[in-house]
Design a protein that fits this description.
The protein is of the alpha+beta class and 75 residues long. It has a single domain (2-74), classed as 2-Layer Sandwich (Alpha-Beta Plaits), CATH 3.30.70. The chain has 2 helices and 4 strands. It has a 4-stranded antiparallel beta sheet. β2 (32-37) and β3 form a beta hairpin. The relative contact order is 0.34.
Length: 75
């Protein structure tokens, strides 16, 4: 089953790369990763994760440790 994780980024592309490289170093299997622009100038990251390969809790634990990521939601 696929889950979508969305998080708000404080530093734009720098935060996006920090999240992407952290998950890559931890060898987390991500189906899809994208940087999004919301209304105004706020930026976000969207991840689609296959829970059969990687539990969402593992991904959330790694993302929560990063200081420039806020408002994490799972759908």
């Amino acid at each position: 089953m696929e889950k979508m994780v969305y998080a708000k980024l404080n530093q734009g592309i720098d935060s996006f790369l920090r999240v992407a490289m952290t998950l890559r170093r931890k060898e987390i299997d991500i189906n899809f990763i994208s940087m999004t622009t919301d209304t105004g100038e706020s930026k976000g990251i969207k991840l689609i994760i296959d829970e059969n390969k990687t539990p969402v809790d593992v991904v959330l634990n790694h993302i929560r440790k990063l200081h420039d990521v806020d408002d994490i939601t799972v759908q």
